[in-house]
Design a protein that fits this description.
About 45% of the residues lie in helices and about 10% in strands. The protein is α/β, with parallel strands linked by helices. The protein has a single domain, classed as Aldolase class I (TIM Barrel), CATH 3.20.20. The longest helix has 18 residues. The two termini are about 35 Å apart.
Amino acid sequence: MSTTKTAVDPELDTTARARDLLGVSRLTNQSLTRWLHGLPGVDQVGCEARAAGLGTRSIKTTSKAWAIDLAISMIDLTTLEGADTKGRVRGLAAKALVPDPSDLSTPRPAAVCVYGDMVGTAKEVLGNSGVKVAAVATAFPSGRASMAVKLADTKDAVRAGADEIDMVIDRGAFLSGDYLTVFNQIVEVKKVCGDARLKVIMETGELNTYDNVRRASWLSMLAGGDFIKTSTGKIQPAATLPVTLIMLEAVRDWRDLTGTQVGVKPAGGIKTSKDAIKFLVTVSEIAGDDWLDNHWFRFGASSLLNDLLLQRQRMTTGAYSGANYIADDSPSTAY
């Protein structure tokens, strides 16, 4: 994909902008297919080797302390279980406000992510703290519902006070080559988000190829997504380093092309400080330091915070407190 910036009128609506970028008078599935399949193919061996190399980078102790605090600030602290209760969500929100009662200098996570019916409960606790409330919507995690249901799901979450919406794409439509349906659905969901930022979940574990990950990333940005996100956390593999590397290349090249910055959110399976630091190194090396900010990069996680807090305590005190000193409010299934 050329990185020559395209002159795009910022006042254009999303569909008009897409027509300008594709150089067509009418957006069709054929024109989208031609554009998406014209993207450079992913060198699987090269991509995995690059990711493996970045994953072995070591960082200095002072940089590690900074990276741990940054990673904490980037977490979407998440509970998405059928057995979620208001008490559980309140507890998770309270933990977001005070992650480590023994050290009040500990950064707060970026957001608490819940089902739409729990948005009000989370907002009651978080108030104007600056910790956002994110809600999954559009028939999460399957995405198998009518458009009317998906839009109603999103509207309910926004009315309840959600600051961010995490939607899932129709993977069946995408994999069958019906890119226009996926595009239109993202556009429609974005319209009803109002001021809420939209994260587009591609469920990369079901996309089968790296080329599809690249195409889904570009399609999601073309349709107006504010973030591209790997996974629901319900399908494996979820947030792998090679897949995230491809997504970071996509947002970097999208900004070069359009001047618009889009965020990235890997979710699912990121459990340790060591894992988180690998992702941060990859962000810096592939997209650049502009993305090393929780406005542009997030971790979708439930258990990651506890390990980061333990590592932070060890670096501060020189010893591990022990996991029993960290309140474990995370779900039994890692997100």
